[in-house]
Amino acid sequence: MNSNISQGSAIKLNKASLSRLGNNVRVPNYDRHQITNGIVHIGVGGFHRAHQALYLDNYFHQNPGSKWGICGVGLLEFDKRMRDALNSQDRLYTLVEKSPAGDRARVIGAITEYLFAPDNRQAVIDTLADPKCRIVTLTITEGGYYYIEGSGEFDANHPTIQYDLQHPDEPIGVYGFLTAALDRRRQQGIAPFTVLSCDNLQGNGNIARKMLTAFAQMQNPELGRWVAEQVAFPNCMVDRITPATTPADIKMVAEQFNINDAFPVVAEPFLQWVVEDNFCAGRPDWESVGVQMTSDVHPYEMMKIRLLNASHLLIGYLGSLAGYTYVHEVMADSLIRQAVDNLMAEVTPTLQPVPGIDLDNYKKTLIERFANPKIRDQLPRLCLNSSAKMPKFVLGSVRDALHQGGAIDYMSLTVAAWFRYLNGLDDQGNAIAIDDPIGGTLTQLARTSGSDPKPLLNLTEIFGDLSQSAPFVDTVTNHLRRLYEFGAKETLTRF
């Protein structure tokens, strides 16, 4: 990650060097050797390190000798970079919170072990099966759940799923590892762990429950019943804008804080975590570090997904078409900023009342967060894996608005802007890289059908039966025709 960047005289981050870091860097003041790993986290990326691991780091400062340390797990070849960076730094890393008021750095020590599954699959199963493991948290992206959007069913035919069913002792996918460990615990009379999804899915715990139980049932009906009866799957809502780490971030950490960190993470100051209090094997006292525990997460996650995440998609597509690179640049464009405001206003009637939240203030805060120039959040991150995001972030609002007889203009504009984006060229004719599991299919359909959205709307695995809604199809058609004819900015002017 940082092979081409000179770190100069910056101090290489590891356990031995913590005492040499400057006073402008907060470091762990608890004994990491006194912590046992009660949590296994699958999918250690920027977001986990800026969010859940930070909450635990705060917890350890209050509760030294805790049993809630984190063992990180990477399942994908892509995770080699994280393995190499963390293991070379005693699992320490730098978190920098950036705002117009200034940058604050701290070293996080909550991850005390990291396992790269392709190196040793059995070690991962052993760790998950160990009675010390009480919670398994997940950030495996929206597409990592093998959930068929159109039907809501488990994608049992996916090659990863089929492989893991046929190779239960050498799994490659998340459900294969979880069921291998749970089956061992069941056979040895060890209570199961809680599975806590921290991904941007409405009802993420419910989805994790349905998908994992379906997989376990296919592998062993008795195991499937045990999982359904014994394992807890809390829903939760997570929120913190965390851009992908860039070489510039590595250089900034070296120059500003004198730390040579192979994989730091940068985030905004805002932080929120709302968790359903439903655990089968205990949990940390998260309330003591600002986590909101509740009996019903649904209104909070609906608010966040339908306002923040849907707005991110509209910003990503319109901004990319208009030739922008960063989110804050897009938000400085009054036309697109107004479109984001209007999208939020349109979505709001589909939301449930959210206890303790002033929605007008929440939306105002979102606009301020998007406009933060220090974050330098890049548009491709927002548009990544859109085929998994669109149904979860936008289409539920469309269905509810249609049912209520409400407006769908800006939700439909978001869909139309995605279709125009999928053509792979911005309004100036520059290439746009489409990063999506089914990107080839989507781009081919977008290019052959042009301003006619019907071939894309007929992808039932994404849109379900929405292609049968004349108001929705007509509104998307009108927007898409304008986007092709006039471009993003002129379309918004005419809108």
Automatic annotation (TrEMBL):
Keyword annotations: NAD, Oxidoreductase
Reactions catalysed, as given in the entry: D-mannitol 1-phosphate + NAD(+) = beta-D-fructose 6-phosphate + NADH + H(+)
InterPro entries noted in UniProt: 6-PGluconate_DH-like_C_sf, 6PGD_dom2, Mannitol_DH, Mannitol_DH/Oxidoreductase, Mannitol_DH_C, Mannitol_DH_CS, Mannitol_DH_N, NAD(P)-bd_dom_sf
Pfam family, one: Mannitol_dh
E.C. code: 1.1.1.17
Mannitol dehydrogenase C-terminal domain sequence ranges: 296-483
GO molecular function, one term: mannitol-1-phosphate 5-dehydrogenase activity
GO biological process, one term: mannitol metabolic process
Presence of the UniProt keyword Membrane in the record: no
Name the record gives this protein: Mannitol-1-phosphate 5-dehydrogenase
Natural source organism: Nostoc minutum NIES-26
